[in-house]
Amino acid sequence: MEKSKYKYIDDLEAMKSLDITIVCLKTGLWEEHHGKIVHLEHSSEVKPKTKFFDTNTCRCHNCKVGGDPISVATHYKKGNFAEGVKWLSEEFRIQKIPNPEYQPRAQEEDKWKREVSGFKKTKPLIPTIDIQRTEYKVKYQIFDPSKKREADIAKGKECYSSLSYANKMMLIFTDIYMFSMNQKRDLLNTYLEGRMIDAKHSQISKLGFIPVSKVGDLVKELTQNYPCDDLIELGVINDAEHNVPLSFKLWYVKKGGLIVYPSFHIYQTNLVTGFMFRPTQPEKWMIESNMKEIQMSNNDIFQTLPNGCTYDFINNNNAIKGIVEGGPDSLCCPEKINGKDLLFIASPGTSGFKKEQIGLLKGQSLRIMLDQDEAGQCGAYGYTTFHYKETENKKYPLDDKGLQEAEIHRQYLILNKIKFHEAKHEGLVQKCLDAGVVAEVVSWDKKYGLDINDVRKSMLKGKQPFKSMEEFLTKYTKIKRFVKEIK
Ligand SMILES: [Zn+2]
Domain count of the chain? Predict the structure, then answer.
């Protein structure tokens, strides 16, 4: 089949930018050994080191296996490129992107035309079809407060085999969450104490916790109650061919425990639709590759909302609503400010809140409180990337400073006749505006801390001029407000 026939294609660029170390370790064919990553497909006495390069590629000293994330995945799937790409997209939840070369088949256009001719013509139709626009149109979710109801979980379990796949997933995820709520929480409390988070914060009671020592029990319980095939398909356990077969997907976390940040169904509020897991004692390679939170969700069968974006969050009319990066940041602010509730969405990374989901907040404001680093700026304002040569590319956030720098770079490339490809990526501000939400970007001086948790920690250590987070938020931050002009 020609490439132009596919409406959506794999995002190979996103796959290539996955951290090569994580990709290697997740295959189970590599392992951390005394601080080095070693290739395991050799006799047990030989543990050859693997070299990792700045170009996000690697190579085994002994057998030369390696390359970029896609070639590692292809190697893992025994040389099958398509299987390798499929594994990456599932394991790292990489969504397909619209195919710029896509041309709808004749039938599809016919269908479209027939639909149009069904309308009463009050004025003459202009016969131009902007395929690009109809194709990419975002279908916003709309919030309807009257839809709230509890799901009958017991009944669901009784007729499990006849349920839709999405419902099966939610039952299994809800069970994982229930399990995580019934474990000892001492390691969780120690972790929160270490991060200087207020133990009385009401959201802490909604977090689950799974000590690593109990992960085996969880898998046992799940495999007794649900078909293994479903658990594999849903990305809860590894498949039988994996190097660590049929074990929990986060088998590579070997110490401490997993903090469980649930995502709830927007209306059936007792159902869990996905997770963000945060290891209390991440492995060294996870820290080095900046891997903080690990997602478990299946957005192809059900669009999971980020943690914190619940029915009560959306429906609260007396609240300031914010979005932060990751779990701990969402627990670092006072719960009330100026008589209003202060509520947070904990987004996994900077782009965890999808455009269509932001539609749920239509008519409201969202305070964007991402980290004060380049990734955070890119997440808030969007960014543009220049791709040129094989491996080099450069990224600029679309804030005032970044826009200027990007323009200088663009002129340089044009003047020097260097071939390049530029790709723009939307940030939260644009997504909010398109969805009818007012965006308020919060910024502060980096000297107070890069993220909200850093700010709070250094304040509690007495290193800051402010004495409370309320004081910090009201006097030491700037808010830039973006409202869409109504035409
Ligand atoms: Zn090797």
Answer: 3
- Based on the fold, state whether residues 461 and 325 are members of the same structural domain: yes
Question: Quick check: 343 and 313 in contact, CB under 8 A?
Answer: yes
- Whether the per-residue pLDDT at 399 is higher than 60: the answer is yes
Q: Which of 60, 82, 98 is the last residue of a domain?
A: 98
Predicted local confidence at residue 113, as pLDDT: 41
Tokens 């379990």 locate to 157
Q: Write down the pLDDT at residue 389.
A: 66
Q: Do the strands 340-347 and 319-325 form a parallel or antiparallel pair, or are they unpaired? A: parallel
Is there a single domain that holds both residue 273 and residue 337?
no
The residue segments making up the domain with residue 274 are: 147-296
For residue range 226-251, list pLDDT tens digits in order.
999 999 999 999 988 888 899 999 99
Å from CA of 318 to ligand 1 middle:
59
Distance 44 CA to ligand 1 centre (A): 12
Instruction: Report how far ligand 1's centroid is from the alpha carbon of 50 (Å).
Output: 7
Whole-structure pTM over 0.85, yes or no?
A: no
Distance CA 13, CA 54 (A): 16
Same domain, 192 and 289: yes
**Other beta carbons within 10 Å of 89:** 19
